[in-house]
Structures are given as structure tokens and as C-alpha cells.
């Protein structure tokens, strides 16, 4: 039987029915849906937007996909089943450029653009700033991702190469690259999110080259809890086999 996340929790709940009630299971699934759906979907929209704005990066990602999973797309013989069968943990781990391009997208377009906490008790921050019980303390991941102070003078540029050394992805401290939060309450679904986003991107980029339907249409964010694109993002998908 294929085990999805709900069936795994259901099996666990049979061992521990007192604590893992239906209400508890409902809350877990809702939590995963709220935490995981819009964040990953919006990141994919911004990722494809960045690939359209930076066609060279798009070609480099597509080339890496071809190099790692066997180059079939290039021979015009690509078959979706072959491509999907070639996506394994081992092949995903080899796609450093794809990982860098997604991370660069999240630096500039963090799915949770503002996050924070409310102080339970009076406290003093490491720099001496006094926080009173009930005060809110927020950080702006969106602004932090664009600060030259943190990322250097080229902070506004979309440059996946900044994450690579000799072709290998170099992670940053989560307190610097804050898109998934940091510390004990860091995103639990980070690896899951990268994997899902990579699988979808590999499947699409193996077969299509993407372009903005209207290069002149401004693309802005909409102020919401997650970083949505304002309106829609019409793209043209051009078959790689035809070009
Ligand atoms: C690009 C995708 C994602 C981004 C940018 C993201 C970002 C974040 C951030 C910033 C937080 C901290 C929220 C806070 O405590 O204030 C968080 C928490 C969390 N995320 Fe994600 N997330 C993503 C995808 C996912 C996915 C796919 C799942 C589940 C399958 C998930 C599950 C969770 C859970 C369970 C928490 C709460 C962790 C805790 O409080 O201990 N996330 N995420």
C-alpha cells in the first residue's frame, strides 16, 4: 500500500487513540495544508517568473536536468514516464543548480514575507533592547533577502551562482537565509517543499521552454500572509522538441 502522510498518521493513531483523536488528526492535516500549499505554489510561480526573466538561467536548469537524467529531452524522444522514473533522491541530489535557482527565488521572494512572535514574558534581546510581555517582534524576510548589507551590492540581482562553489550548493545560515524561519521552530516541511517543487519543475522544464505571455505587463506582489503574485502570470510553454 502506498502510504501518504494522512495514512501514516492514521496508523500511528491506532497505536495511540487516546491522544491522536480525529480532532487532532484534522488539525495536523489542516496545519500541513495551510503551511505547505500556498507557500510551495507561490514559490513555484515566482520561480517560473524568474526563469522567464532570466532565460539563460532557465537554459542552465534545463541543461542540468538533461545531464542528470539522461539527455532524452534533447533527442526529441523524451517520454514523461521515463523522465518521472529517472527522478529519484539520488538524481535530485545531483541538481545543485536547480537547488540554487530555487533558493535564490526564495531569497528574493520569500513565501512568508513577514514573520514574528509575541513575547510571553518581559525579555531583553541580545543587543539590550527591552521587550515587554505582549509586545510583537517581527522580521521582514522580504527586506532581509534584498539587503546589500547582508547579501552584498548585487543583492537585487537574481544570481543562482551566488549559492554555488565549484558547482556544489553552499547552504547559508538559516538566520541569514530566513525564508524557512530559523531556530527550534524552523519549517518542518523544508526538504519536502524543495522535493515537490523540484519534481514539478523537472517534469515541466524537460519538455517546455517558458516565456512570459506579455513582457510589458508589470508583475507585483499582493500584500497577504503569503507572497502572492498580484493577479495572474500568463506564460507561454514552447515545446523543446519543436525548437
Ligand atoms: C517554499 C515552501 C515553504 C516555505 C517558504 C515555508 C516557510 C515556513 C516558515 C517561514 C515557517 C515558520 C512559521 C512560524 O513559525 O512563524 C514554517 C513553518 C512550518 N512549515 Fe513551512 N514552508 C514551506 C513549505 C512547507 C511544507 C510543504 C510543509 C509541509 C508539508 C510545511 C510545514 C511547516 C510546518 C508544520 C511548520 C510549523 C513548524 C513549527 O512551528 O514547529 N512547510 N514554514
Descriptive account of the structure:
By secondary structure, the chain is an alpha+beta fold. It has a single domain, classed as Cytochrome P450 (Cytochrome p450, Orthogonal Bundle). 45% of the residues lie in helices and 13% in strands. It is built from nine helices and ten strands. A hairpin with a 5-residue loop joins β2 and β3. α2 crosses α6, α2 packs across α9 and α3 runs antiparallel to α6. The structure holds protoporphyrin IX containing FE. The site of protoporphyrin IX containing FE has 20 residues, from α2 and α9. Its cofactor is heme. Keywords: Heme, Iron, Metal-binding, Monooxygenase, Oxidoreductase. One of its GO terms (biological process) is lipid metabolic process. It comes from Ficus carica (Common fig).
Secondary structure topology:
Elements: H1 5-15, H2 22-53, H3 55-69, H4 80-86, H5 89-94, H6 96-108, E1 114-118, E2 123-124, E3 130-131, E4 136-140, H7 141-144, H8 148-151, E5 164-165, E6 168-169, H9 190-207, E7 208-212, E8 221-222, E9 228-229, E10 235-239
Antiparallel strand pairs: 1-4, 2-3, 5-6, 7-10, 8-9
This protein binds protoporphyrin IX containing FE.
The number of helical segments is 9
CATH architecture: Orthogonal Bundle
Number of separate domains: 1
Mean pLDDT: 93
The first-level CATH class name: Mainly Alpha
Estimate percent helicity.
40-55%
Q: Strand order, main sheet: write it out.
A: 1-4
Strand count, sense and barrel status of the largest sheet are: 2 strands, antiparallel
| CATH homologous superfamily placement | Cytochrome P450
How much of the sequence is in beta strands? 5-15%
Structural class: alpha+beta
**SSE arrangement, N to C:** HHHHHHEEEEHHEEHEEEE
CATH topology annotation: Cytochrome p450
Terminal residue distance:
42 Å
- From the spread of the alpha carbons, the general shape counts as globular
Low-confidence stretches: none
Number of beta strands: 10
Query: Which ions, cofactors or small ligands are bound in this entry?
Result: protoporphyrin IX containing FE
Q: How many whole angstroms does the radius of gyration measure?
A: 21 Å
Amino acid at each position: 500500500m502506498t502510504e501518504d502522510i494522512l495514512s501514516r498518521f492514521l496508523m500511528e493513531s491506532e497505536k495511540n487513540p487516546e491522544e491522536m483523536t480525529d480532532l487532532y488528526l484534522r488539525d495536523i492535516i489542516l496545519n500541513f495544508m495551510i503551511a505547505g500549499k500556498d507557500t510551495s505554489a507561490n514559490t513555484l510561480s515566482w520561480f517560473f517568473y524568474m526563469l522567464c526573466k532570466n532565460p539563460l538561467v532557465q537554459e542552465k536548469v534545463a541543461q542540468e536536468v538533461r545531464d542528470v537524467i539522461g539527455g532524452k529531452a534533447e533527442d526529441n524522444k523524451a517520454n514523461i514516464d521515463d523522465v518521472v522514473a529517472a527522478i529519484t533522491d539520488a538524481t535530485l541530489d545531483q541538481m545543485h543548480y536547480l537547488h540554487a535557482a530555487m533558493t535564490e527565488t526564495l531569497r528574493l521572494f520569500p513565501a512568508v514575507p513577514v514573520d514574528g512572535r509575541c513575547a510571553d514574558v518581559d525579555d531583553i534581546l541580545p543587543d539590550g533592547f527591552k521587550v515587554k510581555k505582549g509586545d510583537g517582534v517581527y522580521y521582514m524576510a522580504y527586506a532581509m533577502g534584498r539587503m546589500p548589507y547582508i547579501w552584498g551590492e548585487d543583492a537585487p540581482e537574481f544570481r543562482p551562482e551566488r549559492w554555488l562553489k565549484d558547482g556544489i550548493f553552499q547552504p547559508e545560515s538559516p538566520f541569514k537565509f530566513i525564508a524557512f524561519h530559523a531556530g527550534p521552530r524552523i519549517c518542518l516541511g523544508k526538504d519536502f517543499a524543495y522535493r515537490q517543487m523540484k519534481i514539478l519543475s523537472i517534469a515541466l522544464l524537460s519538455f517546455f521552454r517558458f516565456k512570459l505571455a506579455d513582457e510589458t505587463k508589470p508583475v507585483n506582489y499582493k500584500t497577504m500572509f503569503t507572497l502572492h503574485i498580484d493577479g495572474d502570470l500568463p506564460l507561454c510553454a514552447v515545446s523543446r522538441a519543436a525548437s
